[in-house]
Amino acid sequence: MNNTSCRHCGEPETATHVFLHCPLTRQVWSTNIWESNFNPSECNTFEEAFLRAAEATNLPPIGIAGPLFPWICWDIWTARNYRIFENKIPSPDEIISKALRAAREWNAAQSTPEP
C-alpha cells in the first residue's frame, strides 16, 4: 500500500498541499519576494495561485524580471523528493535561494552574447 501522507507534516499529500499549504511550503511562501502582499499559501487552489503569481511583480533587489512561481514550485518539489529519498530537509531559505539561483542562471542563458 502506498503512503499518501506528506512526509513533512503527515497531512494527505495533494498538489495543493505540497505546493501551497504544507507548513514547510508556507514558510517558503512567507518570504516576501513580490511587491504586492501576494502569498500563494493564501490561495485555495494551485490554479488560483498560478494565475495570481503571473500578475505579481518581483521585488527589485531580487534582480529577476520573469516569473518566479514556477521556479519556486520546482524547488519545493525537489525538496519534497530530497526528503523522501535522501531523508534530508532543506530549509525554506535554501529552497528560495536555489530557486532564485536557477531563475538567474536560466535568464542569463537566454540572453544572446554580443559579437
Automatic annotation (TrEMBL):
Name this polypeptide is given: Reverse transcriptase zinc-binding domain-containing protein
Organism: Brassica oleracea
Taxonomic path: Eukaryota, Viridiplantae, Streptophyta, Embryophyta, Tracheophyta
